[in-house]
Specification:
The structure holds two protein chains of two kinds.
Chain A lengths: L2 E6 L19 H23 L3 E4 L11 H12 L5 E4 L11 H10 L4 E3 L6 E2 L4 E5 L25 E7 L16 H4 L4 E5 L5 E2 L4 E3 L15 E7 L7 E6 L4 E9 L5 H8 L8 E11 L1 H14 L5 E5 L3 E3 L3 H7 L3 H14 L6 H22 L1
Parallel strand pairs in A: 1-2, 2-3, 3-4, 6-7, 7-8, 8-10, 13-14, 14-15, 14-16
Antiparallel strand pairs in A: 1-11, 5-6, 9-10, 11-12
Helix pairs in contact in A: 1-2, 5-6, 6-9, 7-9, 8-9
Chain B lengths: L1 E8 L8 E3 L6 E5 L6 H13 L7 H4 L10 E8 L2 E8 L5 E6 L2 E5 H11 L8 H4 L13 H15 L12 H18 L11 H44 L1 H146 L6 H24 L1 E4 L10 E3 L2 E2 L5 E4 L3 E5 L3 E5 L9 H17 L4 H28 L4 H10 L12 H60 L4 H27 L4 H41 L2 H62 L4 E4 L6 E6 L2 E4 L5 H21 L6 E4 L7 H14 L5 E5 L11 E2 L2 E2 L10
Parallel strand pairs in B: 3-18, 3-19, 17-18
Antiparallel strand pairs in B: 1-2, 1-4, 2-20, 4-5, 5-6, 6-7, 8-11, 9-10, 9-12, 12-13, 14-15, 15-16
Classes of the chains: A alpha/beta, B alpha+beta.
Chain lengths: 376, 871
C-alpha cells in the first residue's frame, strides 16, 4: 500500500517582517505574518487533498527560539484543528533544542495529541508502514552533519525508513557540517525529508528540500510549496509532487535599460498584470539610462508601487549616461550649467571615492528633476 | 543685427503707411515733436519682435487705430546672412513673414521661429536690457511686473551673451532649484549641518539609537536566557549524577568501609598508647631509683662540708661584731668633738660680727666729718668764684685787641695826616718862646707843628696868624673816622682811653684767673655739685658707738682658727662614721654567710632524713631492678607499635568519604532551588518571547538603519547640490560683473572721473555710485543722474551683446529727460563712443537739446511707391 505524507519545513511562524517598510495606511507586515500562520491550514488542506495522514515539518517551524505564547498556542491549535493528521515537528536551527528548550517543553506540555515534538534522535513509529528517523538540531550552529545519527538508527524490518533532518547539503567551507547528499544510501533511507533551504531543491530522488510553504525572501521567484510524497514500499522510488501553498509571491526581476530607451515603458512591461496586491516585487535596474530616463523610471515606479504588497526599485547598478541634450535641458549655459557640469565631472571622476561619485550623480539627477518639475 | 527701415500701417495714428528708412550703422536720431509717433514706432518694433502674430493681447490691441483695422509692422534687418524684411499683421488675417531679396523664406510659425532665432532664442530679447521706453529712464521703474520682466531679461540675456558671461547666475531656474534644494535640506538639517530637531534625519537617528538600545537590551536578556538554559542543563545533569542510585550506594558503602577501617586503627592505636604509658612508668621508676641513690651519696658529702664551713663562719662573725662595737665608740667620740668645734665656731663668728659693726660705725662718722668739711670748703670756694666772676667787667682780650687795632689805625691816620699837613715850625727869637700859640697852646721852638686845617696862631703882641693848608692837604676825615671807631670801641667797654681799657682788661684777666682757680678747686671738692655732697651726707646713717668691741683683726684671727678646728673635727667624725659603716657591713656579711651555711647543712640533713634509714647498698640494688623493668617495657612497646595501622590515612580516607557524602547533600540541596529559580527565569524570559522580540527589533533596526542611510544620503545629495549651485552662482556673478564693470568704466568716467559703481547681487544692477570717495545709493541720486547711469549701463550691455556676436540696436525713446545741457554733451560723447560698433536709434522730441548730438538724422515719412508689400 502506498504510504503518503506531506513534507514541509521552514514555516518560521512568528516572524514579524519588521524590516519590510510599511506605509502609514498599510498592513503588509500583519498580512505576511498572517500568511505564515495560514500556511498551517493550507498544509492541512494539501494533506487532505493528497490523502496523506502525516505532515513532516523538517525544522524551523518557529522563527525564533522563544516565540510568544500566543504564537505557539495558536499554531498548535491550528494543527489540532486537523485531528486526522499527525504533525511531526523537528527542531531546526532557529528553534534548536538548546536555545528553544522552553518552546519544546511548551509543545510537549500544550500540544494536542496529533502534534509530536521530535526532540530525541530516536526512531518513531508512523504506523505499520513506516518508521520516522528524526535528527533534531541541538544547537543554532552545529559542528557536525546533523544526519549522521541516521546511519546507526534502527527501524523495523519491512517498514519504510524516512529520515527527517535540517541543514544544508552544501558545505562551502568543507567543515564537515553539511548533510551528506548520499545520506539516503548510507543510512538506507527510502526518503530523506530535509529542511533549512527556503527554496525547493531536489537533491536526488530520495533526498528533497521542500522549501518554505510561504516564501519570505525575493531570491526564489515563486510562491511557496510543500511536497506530497508517495512511496509504494521499501526500496521504491518516491513519487514527489509539489503543491503550492504560498499566498504571497516574492519576486525579484531585473530590468536592463539602455540609453534613449523608454524606461517607464520598460518597467511597465515587466510588471505582472494581475494579483499585484499579493506580490512583493523588487526591480533591480541595470544598464545605462539618461537623466530623464532616471526621472521617468522613478516616476513610473512611484505610480505603480501602491498596487503591490511591496515594491522596491533598486537603481544601484543602473548607470547614468549624461547626454549633452540632458544637460542642455538643465541649462545651455550659465550658473545652472556650470553646476551641472561640475556635478557630472565629480560623478565621472576617477579620483573621487565611489561614495562621492554617487552623491554627485544623485545631486545632478536631483537638479535635473528640479528643473524638469519647474518647467512643467 | 541692424535695423535698416521700419514701416507702419494701420498702427495707431498711422492709418496710412509711414516709414523710417535709411537707418545706418552707428548713431541715428529721429527728432520729432510730441504726438508725431515716436513711441508708436517703438511699440510697433516691440510688437514685431516679441508679440506673435496671433496675439490679441492689450499690447497688440493698443496698436490698432481708433477706426480699427489690422496693424502691420515691417522691419528691414541686416544680419551677416543678408538683408531681410520681417513683417507681421495682427487681428484680421494675422500673418508673419520673412522675405529675403523679395523672396518669402518663412511665414507664420516658421517666421516666428526665425525671429526668435534672430533674437538669440530668448523670450525677453534685448529690449528689456538695452531698449529704453519713454518714461522708463531709470534703471528700475515701472510696474512690478515690468520690473520683474526687466530683471528676468537681464538674467536670461546675460546667461548667454558670450564667453565672458556664459556662466551667469542661471536666472529664475537657478532661484527655483536653489530654493527647492534649500527647502528640502532645511527639513533635514540645521544651518550648521546638524540634524534638525523633529526633522526626518534626527528622527531616523533617534529611531536607530532607540532600536539599538532596545536590541542590545533584548540581546542581553536573550543571552541571559541562553546562559540560564545552559546552567539549567548543567544543573540537571549534576543533580542526576548526584542522585543516581548507584552513586548514592557507592558513597554509602565507601563511607561505611572507611569508618570500620578507622575504628580498627583507633583501637590498635589505643593499645600502643597503653604500652607507651607502661614504658613511661618503668622509665620514671628507674630514673627515681637512680636519683635516690645519687641524692644519698651527694647529701652525705654535703653535710660534712657544710658543718666545717659553719664552724669557720661563726668565728669570723664574732670577730666582726667586736670590731663593730669598737668603731661605734670611736664614732661617738668624734661626733662629740665635732659638736664642740661647731659651738666654738659660732662664738667666733659672733665676735667678728660685733667687731665689724663697730668698725662700720666709726667709718660712718669719719665720712660724715669729711663730707661736712668738703661742703664747707666748697661753699667758700663757690663764694670766691662768684666774687671773681663779678670782677670780670673789663674788656676781654678780643675786645682789647679790637680797641688796640682801632687805636693803631687812629694813630696811623694822625701820622698820615700830619705828614701831609702844613708844617709850622716856630723859631722863636730869643725871649719870645711861647709867644706863638695855637689856641692856648704855645708852639714849641723848633718843633714842627702840623696844621691839618685852617688854624689861627696867636702871636702875642702881633696878632693872629691864620694858616690855611692848601687844597691838597688832608681833610682830616679819616683821622676823625678812626677816632670815632676808637671812641665807640672804648665806650663799649666803658673806658675813656686806651690805657684805661688796658687796665680794665688786665683787671678782668686777673678776675678770670681767680675764677678759674676757684672753679678748679670747687670741681675737685664737688665734681657733681655741692647738693650731691649734701645728699651723700644725708645718706650716711647716724650710728652710736659700741662699747667693749673686740678688735676686728683679732676677731678675724679667732674666727679663722675656729673654722680650722671645726673642719678638722668634721673630717674626724666623717672618717669614724665610714669606718663604723664598713664594720657594720662586714658584720652583716659574716652573719649572712653563717646563716646560709647553716641552711645548707640543714638541707643535707633533710635529704638524708627523707631517704630514710636506708643503706647505700639497698639503694643501689633498687636502682638496678628498676632499670631492668624499664628495658622490658621498651621491648613490649616496640613490638606493639610495629604492627600499628596508619591512623592518619584511615582518618583521611574517612574524612574524604564523609566530605563526598556531605558535598552530595549540599549539592543536591543547592541544585534543587537553583533549578527552581532557573525554571522560573527561563519560563519568564521565554514567556516574554525575548527571542521573538529580539528578531523583530533587529528587523526594525535593519530597516531603521537603511532609512537612516537613505536620509543621510539624501542630506549628502542635497548638501552637495546646494554647494554646487552656490559655487556656480558665485562664479557666474564674478564672470558677470567683471566684464560689465570693465565695459562701463570708460563710459562712466566721461561724466565722473574715478567714479565707481557697486552692483547688487540679486538685482544684477548698480545699486550705488561712488564719486569723490562718497558712496550714494542709486535711488537717492537726482533724476538726471539716475537716467544717465541707466543709459550708460544699457550702452555697456549693448556693447557686450555686440561682442558676443548677438549685437542688437540700442533704441532710446526720450531716454534723457532730466539731463542738463552740460551733462547731455558728455552723454552725446558716450553715445558716439559706443556707436563705433553699435547701431543706436535715438527717438527724441527735444529738438534743441539734441541739435548737437550729431549722427544720422532720420525722418518718418510715407513710403516710396517701390516698397514691397509687407505681408
Amino acid at each position: 500500500m502506498t504510504f503518503r505524507f506531506i513534507h514541509t519545513s521552514d514555516l518560521h511562524i512568528g516572524r514579524k517582517f519588521a524590516n519590510i517598510p510599511q506605509p502609514v495606511d498599510g498592513n503588509i507586515r500583519g498580512r505576511l505574518m498572517e500568511a505564515r500562520h495560514g500556511a498551517i491550514g493550507r498544509l492541512a488542506q494539501a494533506a487532505r487533498d493528497q490523502g496523506a495522514a502525516h505532515v513532516l515539518l523538517a525544522g524551523d517551524t518557529f522563527d525564533t527560539a522563544t516565540p510568544s505564547p500566543v504564537v505557539i498556542r495558536q499554531a498548535l491549535a491550528a494543527m489540532g484543528e486537523a485531528p486526522e493528521l499527525i504533525w511531526w515537528l523537528l527542531p531546526g536551527n532557529h528553534d534548536n533544542l538548546r536555545d528553544a528548550e522552553p518552546l519544546w517543553e511548551a509543545i510537549h506540555r500544550d500540544a494536542p495529541a496529533n502534534v509530536i515534538a521530535l526532540t530525541d534522535a530516536a526512531p518513531q513509529d508512523m504506523g505499520d508502514a513506516a518508521t520516522l528517523l528524526p535528527c533534531p538540531v541541538a544547537f543554532r550552529a552545529s559542528a557536525s552533519d546533523p544526519s549522521e545519527p541516521l546511519v546507526t538508527m534502527a527501524s523495523d524490518d519491512g517498514k519504510l525508513r524516512i529520515g527527517l533532518a535540517h541543514g544544508g547539503v552544501t558545505d562551502f567551507t568543507e567543515s564537515g557540517t553539511a548533510i551528506a547528499p548520499d545520506r539516503d544510501r548510507s543510512a538506507r533511507l527510502d526518503y530523506l525529508a530535509l529542511g533549512d533551504w527556503h527554496g525547493r531543491i531536489a537533491v536526488s530522488d530520495r533526498v528533497q528540500y521542500c522549501g518554505s510553504p510561504e516564501q519570505d525572501r525575493f531570491k526564489h521567484g515563486r510562491r511557496g510549496v510543500c511536497l506530497s510524497v508517495a512511496i509504494d514500499g521499501p526500496g521504491a522510488v518516491p513519487l514527489v509532487e509539489e503543491v503550492e501553498t504560498g499566498s504571497f509571491l516574492w519576486a525579484q526581476v531585473d530590468l536592463t535599460l539602455h540609453p534613449r530607451q523608454d524606461a517607464a515603458a520598460a518597467l511597465t512591461a515587466i510588471l505582472p498584470g494581475a494579483g499585484r496586491r499579493d506580490v512583493l516585487l523588487r526591480v533591480s535596474a541595470t544598464g545605462w539610462a539618461g537623466l530623464p530616463d532616471h526621472v521617468d523610471l522613478q516616476r513610473a515606479a512611484d505610480r505603480c508601487a501602491p498596487e503591490f504588497a511591496h515594491f522596491e526599485l533598486v537603481t544601484d547598478a543602473l548607470g547614468t549616461q549624461y547626454e549633452t541634450a540632458d544637460l542642455d535641458e538643465i541649462d545651455r549655459g550659465g550658473a545652472l550649467r556650470l553646476a551641472a557640469d561640475g556635478l557630472m565631472d565629480d560623478a565621472e571622476s576617477e579620483t573621487l571615492s565611489q561614495a562621492d561619485r554617487e552623491v554627485a550623480a544623485d545631486a545632478l539627477a536631483r537638479l535635473y528633476a528640479y528643473v524638469r518639475e519647474a518647467a512643467r | 543685427m541692424k535695423i535698416r527701415s521700419i514701416t507702419l500701417n494701420n498702427v495707431r495714428r498711422f492709418t496710412e503707411p509711414s516709414r523710417v528708412a535709411d537707418i545706418g550703422d552707428g548713431l541715428n536720431v529721429l527728432c520729432e515733436p510730441n504726438e508725431h509717433g515716436k513711441s508708436t514706432l517703438f511699440d510697433a518694433m516691440q510688437a514685431l519682435f516679441f508679440k506673435p502674430h496671433g496675439s490679441r493681447d492689450k499690447d497688440v490691441a493698443s496698436l490698432r487705430p481708433h477706426a480699427g483695422g489690422a496693424p502691420e509692422v515691417t522691419v528691414e534687418v541686416e544680419t551677416e546672412d543678408g538683408l531681410f524684411s520681417v513683417a507681421k499683421r495682427w487681428f484680421q488675417k494675422p500673418a508673419a513673414t520673412v522675405h529675403r531679396n523679395g523672396n518669402l523664406i518663412a511665414q507664420s510659425d516658421a517666421a516666428e521661429a526665425w525671429i526668435v532665432d534672430l533674437l538669440g532664442g530668448d523670450a525677453g530679447g534685448p529690449s528689456g536690457l538695452i531698449w529704453v521706453r519713454q518714461g522708463m529712464t531709470q534703471l528700475t521703474g515701472g510696474s512690478k511686473k515690468e520690473q520683474d520682466a526687466a530683471l528676468q531679461a537681464r538674467r536670461d540675456l546675460m546667461t548667454s551673451v558670450g564667453e565672458e558671461v556664459e556662466a551667469m547666475t542661471g536666472g529664475r531656474r537657478m532661484d527655483l532649484a536653489l530654493a527647492r534644494c534649500r527647502e528640502e535640506l532645511t527639513s533635514y538639517a540645521t544651518t550648521t549641518g546638524r540634524p534638525k530637531t523633529n526633522g526626518p534625519w534626527k528622527d531616523a537617528q533617534d529611531q536607530v539609537d532607540a532600536l539599538t538600545s532596545r536590541r542590545d537590551a533584548l540581546a542581553a536578556t536573550a543571552q541571559e536566557l541562553h546562559e540560564a538554559l545552559a546552567e539549567r542543563t548543567r544543573a540537571r545533569r549534576d543533580l542526576r549524577e548526584w542522585e543516581a542510585p548507584e552513586a548514592v550506594e557507592d558513597r554509602r558503602s565507601r563511607l561505611e568501609a572507611t569508618r570500620a577501617s578507622h575504628a580498627a586503627a583507633e583501637r590498635h592505636a589505643e593499645e600502643v598508647e597503653a604500652e607507651a604509658r607502661k614504658l613511661d612508668m618503668a622509665r620514671l621508676t628507674a630514673e627515681g631509683a637512680e636519683s635516690r641513690l645519687d641524692t644519698f651519696r651527694t647529701s652525705l658529702a654535703e653535710r660534712k662540708e657544710a658543718a666545717q664551713l659553719v664552724e669557720k663562719a661563726a668565728a669570723e662573725a664574732k670577730d666582726k661584731q667586736a670590731d663593730l662595737e669598737r668603731q661605734r665608740a670611736q664614732r661617738d667620740t668624734a661626733e662629740h668633738a665635732f659638736e664642740e668645734a661647731q659651738e666654738a665656731l659660732k662664738t667666733a663668728e659672733a665676735a667678728r660680727t660685733r667687731a665689724l659693726r663697730a668698725q662700720a660705725a666709726k667709718d660712718g662718722a669719719d665720712r660724715r666729718r669729711e663730707l661736712e668739711e668738703r661742703i664747707a670748703k666748697a661753699e667758700k670756694t663757690r663764694s670766691a668764684m662768684e666774687t671773681a666772676a663779678a670782677a670780670r667787667t673789663g674788656p676781654d682780650a678780643k675786645a682789647l685787641r679790637r680797641i688796640e687795632a682801632f687805636a693803631a689805625t687812629h694813630s696811623t691816620a694822625i701820622a698820615a695826616r700830619d705828614a701831609t699837613a702844613t708844617q709850622v715850625i716856630a723859631h722863636y727869637a730869643e725871649g719870645r718862646i711861647g709867644t706863638i700859640r695855637a689856641g692856648d697852646i704855645p708852639l714849641p721852638d723848633g718843633h714842627s707843628l702840623p696844621l691839618p686845617r685852617a688854624t689861627h696862631l696867636t702871636i702875642d703882641g702881633v696878632g693872629t696868624l691864620e694858616v690855611r693848608p692848601g687844597e691838597a692837604a688832608h681833610d682830616g676825615n679819616s683821622v676823625e673816622a678812626a677816632a670815632q671807631k676808637l671812641r665807640e670801641a672804648l665806650k663799649d667797654v666803658g673806658a675813656d682811653d686806651l690805657d684805661m681799657a688796658r687796665n680794665a682788661a688786665s683787671a678782668r684777666a686777673e678776675a678770670e684767673r681767680r675764677h678759674g682757680e676757684a672753679k678748679a678747686v670747687l670741681d675737685s671738692l664737688a665734681p657733681q655739685g655741692i647738693d650731691r655732697l649734701r645728699e651723700a651726707l644725708a645718706k650716711i646713717p647716724q650710728m652710736d658707738a659700741v662699747a667693749d668691741t673686740p678688735d676686728p683683726d683679732t676677731a678675724e684671727a679667732t674666727l679663722t682658727d675656729a673654722r680650722a678646728a671645726h673642719d678638722t673635727a668634721r673630717i674626724a667624725r666623717d672618717t669614724a662614721s665610714e669606718r663604723l659603716a664598713d664594720a657594720r657591713s662586714e658584720a652583716m656579711r659574716t652573719e649572712t654567710m653563717l646563716t646560709s651555711l647553716r641552711e645548707r647543712l640543714k638541707r643535707a640533713e633533710d635529704a638524708l632524713e627523707k631517704i630514710g634509714n636506708r643503706s647505700e647498698a639497698d639503694l643501689a640494688a633498687e636502682a638496678e631492678s628498676a632499670a631492668e623493668a624499664y628495658r622490658a617495657a621498651q621491648a613490649a612497646h616496640a613490638a606493639k607499635a610495629k604492627d600499628a595501622p596508619d591512623l592518619a590515612a584511615t582518618k583521611a580516607a574517612l574524612a574524604r568519604a564523609q566530605s563526598v557524602d556531605k558535598r552530595a547533600g549540599e549539592e543536591i540541596a543547592r541544585l534543587k532551588p537553583l533549578l527552581a529559580r532557573l525554571d522560573e527565569r527561563i519560563s519568564r524570559a521565554s514567556g516574554d518571547a525575548v527571542e521573538e522580540r529580539l528578531a523583530e527589533t533587529e528587523q526594525e533596526l535593519e530597516a531603521a538603519q537603511a532609512n537612516l542611510a537613505r536620509v543621510e544620503n539624501e542630506v549628502a545629495v542635497l548638501s552637495r547640490l546646494e554647494k554646487a549651485l552656490e559655487a556656480a552662482r558665485n562664479e557666474a556673478r564674478e564672470r558677470y560683473f567683471t566684464p560689465i564693470a570693465k565695459e562701463l568704466k570708460p563710459l562712466l568716467h566721461l561724466l565722473w572721473p574715478e567714479a565707481e559703481l557697486t552692483w547688487g547681487e540679486e538685482s544684477l544692477l548698480p545699486d550705488a555710485l561712488t564719486r569723490n570717495g562718497v558712496t550714494e545709493p542709486i535711488d537717492v541720486l537726482s533724476g538726471g543722474t539716475q537716467e544717465q547711469v541707466a543709459l550708460l549701463v544699457r550702452l555697456a550691455f549693448a556693447r557686450m551683446l555686440a561682442a558676443s556676436g548677438r549685437g542688437a540696436p540700442v533704441i532710446l525713446d526720450d531716454a534723457l529727460v532730466f539731463t542738463d545741457d552740460d551733462r547731455i554733451e558728455r552723454m552725446f560723447d558716450a553715445l558716439h563712443r559706443q556707436a563705433g560698433d553699435l547701431q543706436i536709434i535715438v527717438l527724441t522730441c527735444r529738438q534743441r537739446a539734441f541739435r548737437d548730438l550729431g549722427g544720422n538724422a532720420l525722418r518718418l515719412a510715407a513710403p516710396e511707391k517701390t516698397q514691397p508689400a509687407t505681408c
